[in-house]
Amino acid sequence: MKKLALLFCCLFSFGIFAQEDQTVQNSLTGLVTMVQGQLVQLADAFDESQYDWRPAENIRSVREAILHTAAANYFLAAKMGHPSPEGVDWMGMEKNITGKENVIAALKASNEFILGVIAKEEASKFGEEVDFGFMKLNRLSGLLVVLDHNAEHKGQLIAYARSNDVAPPWSQPQPE
């Protein structure tokens, strides 16, 4: 009986340690999922006619800002050694994808992809250096850039929305 109890304790302990190994990935997944959900809500809140609106010449339009965010998820993943799915041309997304429905679909696919990348990253390799082109960072910092970049463009799209009399869906008054 003691051996069985010891075996159970060992197996249970291994399960706890395996779960702890994913704490960072799970935390990042939760935060990135929240920000991405708000990005999708914002993308959906704009009318199709507002997708080409830009605050000034040579500044990204609503459509381009959304697609830039989607493309960056693939770019950052590629730099970390995770190739894009077949058929994804992240370098041409801003120029080649048009129409609100297609833009939102591209954003959702990119979101799903980068969440898979976050889940695959191994905590034991978080300290490894990656050259992202704009800076050398460790793998964990690269994952944090994913969160930061998505949040940055959420803020940009909030400003675009407010400039077009569009309220972010999560900030609208709730019915009582």
Structure description:
With about 180 residues, this protein is mainly alpha-helical. The protein has a single domain, classed as Up-down Bundle (Four Helix Bundle (Hemerythrin (Met), subunit A)). The protein contains six helices and two strands. The chain has a two-stranded antiparallel sheet with strand order 1-2. A hairpin with a 4-residue loop joins strand 1 and strand 2. Helix 2 packs antiparallel against helix 5. The protein is globular and about 45 Å long. The termini are far apart. About 5% of the residues have low confidence.
Produce a short descriptive summary.
It is built from six helices and two strands; from the N terminus they run H-H-H-H-H-E-E-H. The protein has helices spanning 2-20, 23-45, 62-79, 93-96, 100-120, 139-163, and strands at residues 129-131, 136-138. A two-stranded antiparallel ribbon has the order 1-2.
* Mean pLDDT score: 91
Specify the overall morphology. Answer: globular
For the record, what is the CATH homologous superfamily label?
A: dinb family like domain
pLDDT < 50 runs, ≥5 residues: 4-14
Share in β-strands: under 5%
Question: Number of helix segments?
Answer: 6
Straight-line N-to-C gap: 59 Å
- What is the name of the CATH class? Mainly Alpha
Structural class call reads: mainly alpha
- Going across the major beta sheet, what is the strand order? 1-2
